[in-house]
């Protein structure tokens, strides 16, 4: 049981520009929802500060919003399924809550409905112009620990951008003046918007319907009961997967070894396809979130926090994924490598040219359907979305009471949605996954079978 004590609106503590920001197509095709994440901290003290925990969060957020003033604004529809950002200083929202639970009651922190209660609820029935772009919930547990639940607008920031904001906020909260703050870069015109008169140079499968299950109705698949899991891999298990992925590839065939992400994502793809008992001729896709910051020329400024993520699609017949080689892994990794290498500057510009030429972006927005929902682009069985958090500063949220001992997603929206979450420096990995109940047990058994 989580009880809300108080809700605060936090505005920048100094005057900020009152302007309208145009958003490029990379922002426009992001989901209109907020990304829910959760941070857990053990018994905390405020390091001698005269401020309470909630006051520390409020005062430091008001300072941070001076730097990140667009996050204190609101989105407005401008037609064609597109949005613009009004920087109006309306502020972010912080919620103070208490729970009768102890932190250990949440087990392995898999993103269940109970975890979701630790993140602010956003009522999307309200007009988007009424919704804060940043919402935060501080929950105190009876064991003395706390959680901080974050909800940051997908439209305004991708994962790297949102975590840059949170790291800056934490740095200000703990008064660490020695740590340099990377100033956010607000001008989004530096990101290629697209040329509506240009014809796309590639077949952009990421904007097309995904494969559906042979002989089954998509609407029925949407309604099937799903569940979540949190799998763990040790450093040795991760290295073993990489070894399997690279065992039969010669240096002539492979310019560089398959990465941790490619090996883990490929193995998940194989195991999920087997657990779903897909027919050999069944097409199955794996969506890969590609950070394009270093793929654009010139590269974007270091403080750019908008969306620079492209969701590309690897597709294969399930029978091809089941080929015997040491785990059948090279083929799956090769398919993933192909779409990663395909995502070049030219490919990205072509994708933006396609989007900007569309009179209405709504059908192309990469929002995920939610569990049981009959609307939104269907991405469930026989498909997967595997997002990597490798390289992201997910443990930098030290607000003055130490680093979080766990950070992860607070919700998984649909069947086949998955996050790969690195451990804090020990080489381990956690994998948060939602699958249909009928497939989960087999998936977990298959996943550990050979590693």
UniProtKB/TrEMBL annotation:
<dbReference type="GO" id="GO:0016747">
    <property type="term" value="F:acyltransferase activity, transferring groups other than amino-acyl groups"/>
</dbReference>
<dbReference type="InterPro" id="IPR023213">
    <property type="entry name" value="CAT-like_dom_sf"/>
</dbReference>
<protein>
    <recommendedName>
        <fullName>Spermidine hydroxycinnamoyl transferase</fullName>
    </recommendedName>
</protein>
<dbReference type="Pfam" id="PF02458">
    <property type="entry name" value="Transferase"/>
</dbReference>
<keyword id="KW-0012">Acyltransferase</keyword>
<dbReference type="InterPro" id="IPR050317">
    <property type="entry name" value="Plant_Fungal_Acyltransferase"/>
</dbReference>
<comment type="similarity">
    <text>Belongs to the plant acyltransferase family.</text>
</comment>
<keyword id="KW-0808">Transferase</keyword>
